[in-house]
Every structure is written in structure tokens, then in C-alpha cells.
Amino acid sequence: MARTVVISGGGTGIGLAAAEAFAADGERVLLLGRREEVLARAAGRIPGARYCAVDLSEPRDADRAARFVAREYGTVDVLVHSAGGSGRLEARAGSEDPLEAVAHDWTLAFRLNTLTAALLTEALEGHLATPGGRVLFLSSIAAYRGSGSAAYAASKAALHPYAHDLARRLGPRGITVNLVAPGYVEETGFFGDGLGEDRRRQLIAETSTGRAGHPGDVAQTLRWLASHAAAHITSQVIQVNGGAERGH
């Protein structure tokens, strides 16, 4: 029987690749995100996919997403948290005060990467399939070693203890909770207008595999963690970065 897979940030990048991977297995996919036109375009290329435009950093919108899921699907088998970002695509701080800028950047990072995941999870907790549900978070190599943006790194690292607590809470219901920590992944909008070639070469050189990651690398890891084969894996962080976290 087809499962229901809810993917936040499913309109682009890793989220979209995950949606395509699950849909290829015949799963029912629901895409969540802020930009309706992006979601509509993504859903149009995935057989059977639907979408709901919501700002998951807002409690009211997270609740609206949960009510949509309950009404249209009833149960969530797989919940993938791919919404988030570096903040490069967001408005900059409106003040020249350096501390105001710090407050803006840190608040933004936690709203984009941490609060979105926590609000959606809490809103959908009662609708997760019991047993067999899967909750999957997108962390980052930055959670382990920084990234040049302490706010972004901290906001991803904050997902780890939340996921571990959630795994203990949901484990008795037969629900697993895991995280995937990508390194440098091309073909996403993470870097905004682009990454300089020198920096790109540096990031690739840090890997043991000698190549950049692709959205499909992460999507297939999420697909496996959501499978029956991974039923006894929970409260884990799976590194998908070509060994870059270990360094050279």
C-alpha cells in the first residue's frame, strides 16, 4: 500500500529530489513550503504529488498544514524536514547597529532551520503512523565544524538533541527519528547567487571521494532511512558528505 510522505521545503533542491525518489516508489507525496508557484511547478513534475503553501515558522501555518494533512490523508507515514536555508535569500537586517544585525541573523537562522522543523513535527505528531512512522531531519556538516555562519551551524546543531528526545518519545509507538547531515551539495539554491570557483574547489578537496554532493545522494539516504530495512535505526545522524566532516 502506498504511504503518505510529507516533505517540507519540497519545491527545490534536496526536498524536491526526495519527493521524486519517494514518488518513484509509488508513494503519495505532499510538498510544503512558502512559495506557492515553486511548489506548483514541482508538483507538476511529480506524478500524484500535491502541495500546500505555508510558512512553517508560523504556528498558525504549521497548524493549517496539519489540518490539511489530517483532512486529506489522515496519517503521515514519512515526515521529511527539508525546509530551511542559509538566510542568503532573506531580507537583510534593517539596522546598521552590529548587535541588531547579530540578533537578526541568529533569529532568522533558528526560524528557518529549527523552528520550522519543531512546529511541523509537533503539529503532526498525533498523525504519524503507529507503528512504522518515520521522521527525518536535514542537519548539516556545519553542525559539526561550523560553516562561516555560526548562526546557521547552531540552528542545525539544535536539531540533534531535539531529534534524540523525539526518538525516545516516539520509539514506543514504533516510530523512528533520524537525521541526515549533508556536506557541500550542488544544484540547490543554498548559496544564493552562487559559490566562487575557488571555494567550490576547496569544498570538493575536503572530501575523500573527490566530488561534490548532489541532491540525489541525500534523497536516496532519506529513502533508505524511511524503508522497512531501517526499522531498527533511530536517534542517529547519517553523514552524507564524502568524508569531508573527517577532514584531511
Automatic annotation (TrEMBL):
Any single GO BP term: fatty acid elongation
* GO function terms (MF aspect): oxidoreductase activity, acting on the CH-OH group of donors, NAD or NADP as acceptor
Q: Which InterPro entries match?
A: KR_dom, NAD(P)-bd_dom_sf, Sc_DH/Rdtase_CS, SDR_fam
PROSITE patterns per the UniProt record, alphabetical: ADH_SHORT
Against SUPFAM superfamilies, the record matches this protein to: NAD(P)-binding Rossmann-fold domains (SSF51735)
Q: Which family does it belong to?
A: Belongs to the short-chain dehydrogenases/reductases (SDR) family.
Q: What is this protein called?
A: Oxidoreductase
Q: Which organism is it from?
A: Streptomyces tirandamycinicus
